[in-house]
Amino acid sequence: xxxxxxxxxxxxxxxxxxxxxxxxxxxxPSALLGLILSIPGLLVAVTFHEYAHAFVADxxxxxxxxxxxxxxxxxxAHLDPYGTFLMIFxxxxxxxxxxxxxxxxxxxxxxxGGSALVAIAGPLMNxxxxxxxxVVYGLLFKTSFVYSTVGGIVMDVISYTMSMNVGLGVFNxxxxxxxxxxxxxLAILPTRAQEWYENNQRILYIVFLIIWITPIASQIVTxxxxxxxxxxxxxxxxxxGKYIWLN
Length: 247
What we know:
The protein is mainly α.
């Protein structure tokens, strides 16, 4: 499969984006602080996302992730150096993909069905974590802890973690390779549409790259992210009994 890190042109684009963002962080201390506070959320979102893929594959009978050391919550097992660096400094990136062998799935599911379950597990885990963050935020917001310096930092970290999980979950649902949404789509398409989709993977991958490095991706995912954020804010308000503003 085409690799971002093996394409010099793409790496030059990513480098320019990183340099642009680093410059904005250096000139804006508050943005730099936000970057630092977002790192724990990034680690949690990526680690649990990839672990969920490995966990479901293992439960379906494929021990490939287990043998490769991916059935763990150790972030080092799931972070891709290039993808992590980009997520920190350019606002987008990727984790280390979990390798699976669908042939090993048990007979209870089809190969495509099992692959779809493994794929959807990552985004679903991110949404579950976002809900957990909202509940914890709401509970803490009822206490005086939030008015302390440490409390303020903790609340910011929780807020960033919630946002990171929503963003990662929604983005991965885009039905283009190599995102999780493409594997889910393949499982539900009619046979002829599946054949066309599989035969045009490279073209669809190029479409994904164009969407990724342009404002198109933001235009696609922002409405859904905004809707989910609205629901989470309402959940926090119900739990805390207060109106709030999130970062």
